[in-house]
Structure formats: structure tokens, C-alpha cells
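[09:14] KT: can someone run the structure on this one? pasting the chain below
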Amino acid sequence: MENALAFGFAAGFFAFIAVSVLLSRLRLVEYTPREVPLSASRFFSIAILFLPLALFEEFLFRWLMIGQLEGWIGLVPAFLLSVAAFVAAHRPNGRLSFLALLNLSVVSVILGFTFLNWGIWVASAAHAGWNVAEWGMGYAVSGEKMRTVLPSPARREVQGEPFGPEGHWTATVVLLVVLLSLIATHPLH
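[09:31] RB: done, C-alpha cells below
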């Protein structure tokens, strides 16, 4: 189980790193360092917050909506309801472009697939890994409104995309590669 949790966290973390590398290589990122750096204790205390936040979201959107509703309404309707609710829950974080809607949907499908194959803990670890990498590199996590609640170590913004990396086509590419890899290596029965 520990290996699965570490793998889940690393998968989410490095998937976001791939998005960040693409954005940087394409010179689409504006970087501003913090005037006053976060102390190490402040950095780690904020980073640790992403674990229970991810667990809460996975409990709500995967365990409750997929795991519990599946018996009542069937897997496909429960899964689709989970995706729609996950996207709707991220709406208050900022303006959702078409790509932001698409990417949030694909992330939800990936996390739902992960939940069905490995359980809530691994899905939570993958979710937290993505968010920790995104925040730690200075991007707004799922939209600009979260930046005031969880101040990041720097400020990176994607040019022309107020929702952040999740609203850009580079995230679409990485997320689709992850999803297709999961489907190819772990088909649901």
C-alpha cells in the first residue's frame, strides 16, 4: 500500500511537472519571485494542507459519488455525476474556459479511474501530488482565487489563461497521455 501511495503522489506530481516544463519551453509563463520568501516551516505547513484537501475531494467526488452511488444508479451514471460535480465545484475558483472545463473533466476521469483500480488513498495521493507541484512552483491551484488562501513560494502565471495551467492545452496533452496510459495498462473489467 505504501508503494501505491508513493506512486500515486509521484504520478500526480510529475504529471504537473510535465505541464510546467511544456509551458516554460513554450515561453508562456510569467515568473515573479516573492518579495519575502516563505520560511521552510510555512512552506511545509501549507504543502501538508494539500493532503487532507485532496482526501476530502476524493472522499466526496470518488468514494461517495462513485463508490456509494454506483449500487443505486449504476457505475456509468455515478461516474458521470462525479465528473460533473467535480467540475462544478471548481467553478468558483475562476473563469472556466473550454479547455479548463475539458481538463477538469479529464482530471476527474483519471482520478475516478484511479479510485476504481487502487482506491481512495491512491487517488488522493495523486490529486495531492498534482496540487503540491502546482502550488510549489508558484502557480495558482485550480484558479486564481486559491492563491490568497494558500500563498505560494513564487508567482507563475500562464499568459492569457486566468485559470492557470489547468486551462491550457499543454495540460490537455499531458492529461490525455496519462489517461490513455492508464486505460492501456489497467483496463476496467
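[09:33] KT: thanks! Helices lie at 2-25, 40-68, 70-73, 75-90, 98-118, 120-136, 146-149, 169-185.
[09:34] RB: yep, looked fine to me
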